[in-house]
Amino acid sequence: MPAYLAFDLGASSGRAILGRLEAHRMHMDELHRFTTPIIEEEGHLYWDVDAIWRHLQTGLCKALDAAPDLRSVSVNSWGVDYVPLDAEGRPLRRPFVYRDPRVKGRMEAAWEVLPAPAIYAATGIQFMPINTLYQILADQEEEPERFAATRNRLMMADYFNHRLGGRAVAEVSLASTSQLMDARTQTWSTEVLKAFGIPVDTWPPIVPSGTRIGTLREHPAVTIIASCSHDTADAVAATPAAGTRPWAYLSCGTWSLLGVERAEPLLSEAARRAGFTNEAGLDGTIRFLKNITGLWMLQECERAWRERGDAYTYDELMAEAEAAPPTGGPLDLTDPRFAARGDMQARIVAYGREHGIPIPEERGPLVRTILESLARAHRDTLRDLEAVLGTSIDVLHIVGGGARNRLLCQWTADACGCEVVAGPAEATALGNLLIQARTMGDLDDGVSIRDVVRHSTDLVTYRPSPRAAP
């Protein structure tokens, strides 16, 4: 069985997943898992890339022990963040975490230079303060010497693929999250870069998903592949859609990303005003989607509970939420107070007081409030998507970690009034592995990535229940 290694780097945790292809099934084994390390220093948040690198080396050693005939390796990660490099290819600093407060106000200031409609017409990307563009503008103002010394920038997964031994490139799906790539040509947007005084030559060449970019330095028989370097692009590639019924995907983890797969970008004013983004996907497709807060708030609550020594299992937590009464109203997940790290439980309770929503401080009701609010956000985004597209969605595929959350899946089906198909939960890693397998020529003729996904995954279908939607 040919073997491949996927490094799946998420904002909360990272994993090394070994995949073995047998007939039309991909078998996956988690070899190593770690909490994604963040450094808090002088009021700023940084990704600890050297600690992440050590975890990658641990995962790689375990993979080579388990599969000496390893065929290939690829890293995927979240979007927007990057490592600035000097003329010798050395990092000039640690990469900032996208939640770092330095980006506050940058987006609105950018619109004074190039109006929002013009930026969207060029890049097709949803306006979010965390976007790479606004991080670069913070570099210009707050660290001008480093900005001037920057000769290249690599997005997170591309940086680690390069450090493993691959060429310094920008894989297209990850590059598209920057709000600096032309949505039509899938090249760097000279219009946007020049408008903000960002040298075009400080960005690497953009390559298609599934590009071979080198071999491991110490193991030249192992190919390094830029699969889809963006985790959501891998997850969408592994969405098990089939048939002719109109479908949408919901990649649910720290973020919820809900949208459809298109052949070309949709850059209408209606799409811009509704907050939809046009990110690149596998084989030249466009991921027309909207980023909304996902399980982040729950993850932050759980982090605080663990740090104070609360003892519970995930099943116990969900049972407490299911036993709690329905909430009095949804949280506005776009409220800025919910975006930053910190005491999320206190913020939720304070929000409830301000808006007349009774939120007990017990875990169960709090978790129920978060999940019901997220289900409603999924419903609202799906309705916006249908309005912009002028069509109805019959099936919503939930992939990623959220597919394991039975309550969230059922409440999303209830809220959206459509069939929800949950799985695969490991969509990001599975997509990464299958793109590697296809690039290495290991998929049989006529067998698609989604064919293998359906053979490799146990899917669960949820239908709207007769009771009132949350």
Describe this structure in a few short sentences.
This protein has helices at residues 49-66, 106-113, 116-123, 132-142, 144-149, 156-164, 172-175, 190-195, 231-237, 269-273, 296-307, 314-323, 344-355, 363-389, 406-416, 427-439, 449-456; strands at residues 3-9, 13-22, 25-35, 38-41, 44-47, 72-76, 82-85, 152-155, 170-171, 206-207, 211-215, 223-226, 247-252, 255-262, 277-280, 286-293, 395-399, 419-422, 460-462.
Tell me about this structure:
The protein has 470 residues and is α/β, with parallel strands linked by helices. It is 37% helix and 21% strand. It contains 17 helices and 19 strands. The strands form five sheets. The protein has a seven-stranded mixed beta sheet, with helices on both faces. A six-stranded mixed beta sheet has the order 3-2-1-6-12-11, sandwiched between helices. Helix 9 packs across helix 16 (427-439) and helix 12 (314-323) crosses helix 14. The longest helix has 27 residues, at 363-389.
